[in-house]
Amino acid sequence: MTSITTTRRHTVVDSPYGPLTLVATDGVLSGLYMAGQRHRPAQETFGERDATPFGGTIRRLEAYFARELTHFDLPLHLEGTPFQRRVWDRLRHIPYGETRTYGELAGELGNRGASRAVGLANGKNPIGIIVPCHRVIGSSGSLVGYGGGLERKQRLLAFERGAGDGTLF
């Protein structure tokens, strides 16, 4: 009987929103975590520090922060339940600079009443920014729930809407 082993690697890159930890599973991006992020796995699960698998991801993030890229076309290794993966897929269809409510996403998934479940899945998104969970807002248009913190969510949305560099002041 053969056991399947996976190799995890990580690196840390600077961004206008603080350091970002990138994680790859078998060479494919499986995590992008902000400092202090809720639902961030333990550091020891990220594997050895090695920037080798992240060249394309880093170039695309640099282009995004330079306002030269509005859509990420990277292969992703998303680990989650089937429902979570459906939500995360829908997030990738929200256009740059736009937002959707949790209820709208639930409706797109065929169950308008599942907005709370969509919110829970959104909060556990393992690949922030690239899978743009920051683009989801409350039904009243309010900024609610963001694993990276509401200030970062506000800055990312302002950045994507062309409001300076996304800083608050």
Q: Whole-Å distance between the termini?
A: 59 Å
Q: Helix and strand succession?
A: EEEEHHEHHEH
Principal-axis shape equals: globular
Percent range for β-strand residues: 5-15%
Radius of gyration (CA) equals 16 Å
How many beta-strand runs? 6
Largest sheet: 4 strands, mixed
Provide the low-confidence segments as ranges: none
Strand order of the largest sheet: 3-2-1-4
Average pLDDT across residues?
89
Q: Would you tell me the structural class of the helices and strands?
A: alpha/beta
| Helix content range | 25-40%
Number of helices: 5
Notes on the structure:
With about 170 residues, the protein is α/β, with parallel strands linked by helices. Helix content is about 30%, strand content about 15%. A hairpin with a 6-residue loop joins strand 1 and strand 2 (about 20-25). The longest helix has 11 residues, at about 55-65. The chain is globular and about 45 Å long. The chain starts with 7 loop residues before the first strand and ends in a 9-residue tail after the last helix. It holds the Pfam family Methyltransf_1N. It catalyses: a 4-O-methyl-thymidine in DNA + L-cysteinyl-[protein] = a thymidine in DNA + S-methyl-L-cysteinyl-[protein]; a 6-O-methyl-2'-deoxyguanosine in DNA + L-cysteinyl-[protein] = S-methyl-L-cysteinyl-[protein] + a 2'-deoxyguanosine in DNA.
